[in-house]
Amino acid sequence: MTTAPGATRTDRRTASTAEIAAYRAAARAGLPPAADAQPSPVHAFVLAHTAADRTVRSLISGEEASVVHLGQDIRLERPVLPGEPVTIAVDVLGARREPRGTRVAVRTRLTGADGAVPFAELVTGALLVGASGIEPFGDIPSGAAPAPDGPAGEPATATHRPTTDGIRAYAHASGDLNPIHLDPETARAAGFDGVIAHGMSVVALVCEEIADRYADGDITRLTALGCRFSGPVLPDEPLDITLQPDAGPTVVRFTCRTPKGPAVKAGWARLSPASKERTS
Questions:
Q1: Cα 95 to Cα 57, 61, 104, 141, 216, distances in angstroms
Q2: Which end of the chain is more exposed for a tag (fewer CB within 10 A), N or C?
Q3: How many angstroms separate the CA atoms of 139 and 184, rounded?
């Protein structure tokens, strides 16, 4: 049996200006180019992913098991800064048994060059399909969305069609080269009809839509977000995004659907007020 891990795992990463711009371009597939190259809030996940994934896979301890991304929460004090050395600290919050395997929750904290308070905290939920050798421990956070600010505003919808080329571009911009996103045979062996889009590429696209519609294109005003993944997104199929802002808007809730059903549910993003520089 694998028991609760003790020491926090750490890593170091840096995002260059070119990497941030390339990620924004890949995330905006199907949208006009961004007005600037400010970092998406999802870039915190890009920096954290390798260390968090390595930590999750270390729990399997030799078992034949696959990792399914179930949900993601991201909370930022500020955006990722280009060229800044970032320390990434990962610890496992909890694990519990489920019929298909073991559900785990992993917390990742990003600290900047000043070495002070972390500027980003991420909680990742994953299912280790087929894993049964992990002793249950700790807690699985619920990841509750913030309360709405007043009544609901006018909803909005958008439809996109991810392409195979777009999925490949996102894989290279994000550094997530999992073959289920790139190789049809591997994807079919994993139970899909073919290659699938990255779940976080869908979230990054939603963030771009929210920034364009509710934040005057300033993506750095998205300071927190959360969602749960519920189905794959295949290339060339319509992806319908529904956005429901509150009256502020300070919170925008979202869902994403394909013809086969929900792909992302219980989504939400929090917006900070516009800066004086943007409004003057």
A1: 13, 14, 4, 11, 41
A2: C
A3: 36
pLDDT at 190 > cutoff 90 = no
Q: Are 253 and 247 in contact (CB under 8 A)?
A: no
- The Cα 233–Cα 68 span in angstroms is 14
Rounded to two decimals, the pTM is 0.93
- For helices 164-174 and 17-27, what crossing angle results, to 10°? 150
Treating both helix axes as pointing N-terminal to C-terminal, what angle do 17-27 and 43-58 enclose, rounded to 10 degrees?
A: 90
What is 142-206 written as a DSSP string?
--PPPPPSSSB---EEEEE---HHHHHHHHHHHT---GGGT-HHHHHHTT-SS----HHHHHHHH
Specify whether the backbone of 76 is left (phi greater than 0), alpha (psi in -120 to 50) or beta. beta
Mean pLDDT, range 68-95, rounded to an integer:
95
Cβ atoms of 264 and 229 closer than 8 Å = yes
Label each residue of 77-134 as H, E or C.
Answer: CCCCCCCCEEEEEEEEEEEEEECCEEEEEEEEEEECCCCCCCCEEEEEEEEEECCCCE
Q: Which DSSP category does 220 fall into?
A: G
Length in residues, the chain? 280
pLDDT band with cut points at 50, 70 and 90 for residue 7: low
- Peptide linkage before 118 cis (omega within 30 of 0): no
Closest CA relative to residue 38, chosen from 208, 209, 274: 208
C-alpha–C-alpha distance, residues 191 and 187, integer Å = 7
Question: Which string of b and e fits 114-140 if b means at least 16 CB within 10 Å?
Answer: eeeebbbbbbbbbbbbebeebeeeeeb
* CA dist., res. 124 & res. 104, Å (int): 8
- pLDDT tens, residue by residue, 134-166: 899 999 988 778 887 788 889 999 999 999 999
